[in-house]
Each structure stands twice: as C-alpha cells, then as structure tokens.
UniProtKB/TrEMBL annotation:
Keywords per UniProt: NAD, Oxidoreductase
Domain NAD-dependent epimerase/dehydratase: 5-162
Family: Belongs to the NAD(P)-dependent epimerase/dehydratase family.
Signal peptide stretch: none
Protein name in the entry: NAD-dependent epimerase/dehydratase family protein
Matches recorded under InterPro entries: Epimerase_deHydtase (IPR001509), NAD(P)-bd_dom_sf (IPR036291)
Keyword check for NAD: yes
Keyword NAD attributed: yes
A Pfam family it matches: Epimerase
Length: 278
C-alpha cells in the first residue's frame, strides 16, 4: 500500500499501532491533536489535525488508500464534548475518505455500542445497537454512517467493536481483554483482507470467557492468540464480590452501563497508561 492514515496516533492504542502500520505502507500519515508524538518510524509523517475540523481532516487524508480511524474522546463525557471529535469527526473522516477516493475505513468502534446487553447473552455481530452512554451512542452513529457510505458510496468499512484493550486489572477483563498483539493482528486483517464490504467484528482475544461471537466475521481471518484465563485466579481472588443487580457487573459495557450519562466510565477501571514510547 502506498499511503495509509492513522487517526488517534497519540493515544494509547494508537501508540501500539504506529510501528506495525508503518511497515504495511510506503507512507504512514499519523494524526492527532497533540503537538508531537515523539520519534517517527521510517516512512511515518505526523500531521496535527482536529477531527472536528473538516478542512484539517480533508488535508490529512489526501492520497490515502485506507484510513485507520482511532481518534476520539475515549471515555464517556457530556454530549457537547462527544459531539465534535466522536460524531462530527466520524462524518469528516468518511466524507474526506470519499472525496479522496479511499477504498476502506478501519474503525475503532466499541462494545459500548451494544453495552446494555446482559453479559450472560452471548451476542453476535448482528445484534441491534444498544448503547450504554453518549460515547457508545457515537459509536452507533459511526457504524451506521459506515454502513451508509458503503451502500451509497462504495466505501468499505471494518468496524471493530473493541471490548477492553488494556492490562487485565479487573474481573470483567478476564472475558473482555484484547491484547496489543491481537489488536495489531485484528487491524492488519482488517487492512489486508481483499474484500470486506461493511463488516463488524469484536475486538477481543481468545479468552475462555469471551462473551461475544465473531463467527460471522471469520472471513477476515482474525484468529486471536492470547487468553486472559492466565490472569483469572489472581484477579478473581482479589476482586470484590459482584452484584448481579448492578448493570456495571451484569452488562457487556461494564462500568459504562452503570454510570450516569456524561460521567466517566473509565474512572474506576484501573486502566494502566502503558502507551508505547518512541
């Protein structure tokens, strides 16, 4: 591939994607709103761009064959804050991709698009949206936008509903963990699969207790290798007793299912900021 664009390059997940993506193309354009993202990899260029600005997004995507769209506010927040980067930003990415003739957008969607389903329901990629927050609602918007741009304008999309791509620090993550190695494999398969149309796939590792079904996305060739069961005994021994009446314990969205709208869902999750340094 000649040119690939990565949004959200300064974020934790983006930091782990930059190097492998730089090896898949002649030119990687990494974008974010940070002033810089450290030392660049071979073939990588950094462009500061605000997702809420169509002009800045349009300029960053010029010549791109594909876009890996990870940029957004990564937590629940008031709707007015979500609106710009997460909703308007999604429109700007797909519209700019269309105007520049890009053929596919690989999108970091989220389990929070369906976060209110009970965890004892083994859900597939075809379940109706059931968002748990404004953050999840924005993911629903972007998935529907992606489907519309495929059906009306022929832009392919792979929407990756990531469960929890972070170190395993809580009981929920024993089922929902997506390791960085499996994240890289998932994004790579979303890029190198010859034809995808509009597709949804869950971003989760090969966990014994994974609560979602990726059978309908098997054509992507995503075969995760890591398994959070290795952490189960220690995590369960230390975790407080869970309440089956608490949506935060019973629903796929975890804490996002129980917080008040507009309030942080990650505040109690113990996420370790282990972004890759360059």
């Amino acid at each position: 591939m000649k040119k690939l664009v990565l949004t959200g390059a300064a974020g934790r997940l983006g930091s782990h994607l930059r190097e492998p993506l730089s090896k898949l193309c002649d030119e990687l354009i990494s974008t974010d709103i940070a002033d810089d993202i450290g030392t660049l990899y071979d073939g990588e260029t950094y462009v500061k761009a605000d997702l809420a600005s169509y002009d800045e997004v349009h300029a960053a995507l010029e010549g791109a064959e594909m876009v890996v769209h990870f940029g957004a506010i990564g937590d629940e927040a008031p709707f007015e804050q979500i609106l710009g980067p997460n909703i308007v930003g999604a429109y700007n990415v797909w519209e700019a991709a269309f105007k520049h003739g890009a053929r596919r957008v690989v999108y970091a969607s989220s389990i929070h698009a369906v976060g209110m389903y009970p965890k004892n329901e083994f859900i597939g990629t075809d379940v109706p949206h059931r968002p748990d927050t404004y953050y999840g609602l924005a993911k629903c918007f972007a998935e529907d936008l992606a489907r519309m741009y495929w059906e009306k304008r022929g832009i392919e999309a792979v929407c990756m509903r990531i469960l929890s791509c972070a170190q395993v620090t809580n009981a929920r993550a024993v089922g929902s963990w997506l390791s960085y190695d499996d994240l890289i494999q998932l994004v790579t398969r979303a890029i190198d699969t010859p034809v995808t149309g509009f597709s949804v796939v869950y971003g989760v590792s090969n966990n014994d207790r994974a609560p979602v079904d990726n059978a309908a996305a098997s054509f992507l060739g995503y075969r995760p290798k890591d398994n959070a069961e290795q952490f189960a005994e220690e995590i369960f021994a230390e975790a407080p007793r869970m309440d089956p009446q608490d949506p935060g314990h019973m629903c796929h969205g975890g804490p996002f299912a129980s917080v008040e709208l507009g309030h942080s869902g990650t505040a109690t999750m113990g996420i370790v900021d282990d972004r890759k340094k360059t």
